[in-house]
Amino acid sequence: MQHRTMESYKIQLVAIVSLILVFPNTQGWGEDGHFIVCKIAQSRLSNSAAEAVKNLLPESAQNDLASLCLWPDEIKRDARYRWSATLHFADTPDSLCNFQYDSKSPYSFILMHSASNDPSGALSELGKTTQQFRDCKDLSTGEKGQCVVGAINNYTNQLLNYGSVTKYNLTEALLFLSHFVGDIHQPLHCGFVSDLGGNRVAVNWYNTVRNLHRVWDDDIIETAEERFYDSNRTEYINAIQQNITKAWADQVKGWENCSPNKIPCPDIYASESIEEACQWAYKGVSVNSNLQDEYFLTRLPIVTLRLAQGGVRLAATLNRIFGTQYSAAM
Ligand SMILES: *[C@@H]1O[C@H](CO)[C@@H](O)[C@H](O)[C@H]1NC(C)=O
Ligand SMILES: *[C@@H]1O[C@H](CO)[C@@H](O)[C@H](O)[C@H]1NC(C)=O
Ligand SMILES: *[C@@H]1O[C@H](CO)[C@@H](O)[C@H](O)[C@H]1NC(C)=O
Ligand SMILES: *[C@@H]1O[C@H](CO)[C@@H](O)[C@H](O)[C@H]1NC(C)=O
After folding, report:
1. Over the chain, what HEC string results?
2. How confident is the model at residue 260 (pLDDT cuts 50, 70, 90)?
3. pLDDT tens digits, 87-105
4. Which of 171, 176, 178 to mutate to test the pocket of ligand 2 (most atoms within 8 A of CB)?
């Protein structure tokens, strides 16, 4: 590696690390996105999964999973739950457009050799912990598995204890799993690490100041509801459900599929998301781009598809978790 490149990598890296420390990542679909994913999912549950979900939800939810799917966003800044903030996303190195759970970090070499720029030693410490793992880790501590992919595996495993004595709070496990299966389908949730999945990309959305991440969390969905569905979320959900049973009927089995013997397949969902982030979310966007009809109308089908896939896959995962073949094996 040439010295000039090394030097600019170092500077970039210091900048990235400072950004991460200063700006906590706010990631994931907004309120409507999570609601839609969970509504679709609950309508597709097997009898045994529907029964388990009903038992795990607090009485106050009146058996409506969607009403609590935003809970992990509401609590992630509370001192008691701050550990969960890193579990909402899995950002990847800039411009590579693929997800790798734990391959070697391209930054590890630089981190290990940045002592002269790092009088406090904090970066070298970070380098030691992050060098093995690329995309699924806590960005500030480097701890492996602390990302949305690890979290989906974690809460699936906890829920497999349903019906037996367990130290885990399975109500929380259900709400985390339902939220994170939604989050992982938001393409910018697996966006680039340097801009925090688009959070640091300032844009104009029909002349209103936004960031790109927020456009994908909320604005595309809300604009669609206003323009095409009479500002009625239920109408949008019904239209998606229609397409799951008709236009996409041939693809749904493929969405539900997971490698044999696996219950969730979050690596697949994260890989799809970063590809779509590159192909659609970031494409043609630069700082202060003015995003209007051309962007909205070409990206809306992707957003709708991801909501549909999130709902279908959450149901498939819960059906596998609470299906007799798996619980019998426990
Ligand atoms: C797994 O769940 C426990 C809480 O039950 C939590 O402390 C831990 O951080 C979680 N890890 C991941 C990767 O989700
Ligand atoms: C499980 O978590 C929920 C949500 O945080 C909480 O309301 C409930 O009291 C917890 N249950 C137990 C047994 O701790
Ligand atoms: C929204 O649409 C649903 C389904 O068509 C309908 O039942 C409901 O009354 C509508 N809500 C409002 C506020 O118009
Ligand atoms: C449903 O599918 C039709 C035909 O492909 C498409 O025109 C429409 O936009 C889709 N609607 C939704 C909500 O996905």
Report:
1. CCHHHHHHHHHHHHHHHHHHHHCCCCCCCCHHHHHHHHHHHHCCCCHHHHHHHHHHCCHHHCCCHHHHCCHHHHHCCCHHHHHHHHHHCCCECCCCCCCCCCCCCCCHHHHHCCHHHCCCCHHHHHHHHHCCCCCCECCCCCCECCCHHHHHHHHHHHHCCCCCCCCCCHHHHHHHHHHHHHHHCCHHHHCECCCCCCCCCEEEECCEEEEHHHHHHHHHHHHHHHHHCCCCHHHHHHHHHHHHHCCCHHHHHHHHCCCCCCCCCHHHHHHHHHHHHHHHHCCCCCCCCEECHHHHHHHHHHHHHHHHHHHHHHHHHHHHHHCHHHHHHC
2. confident
3. 999 999 998 999 998 875 5
4. 171
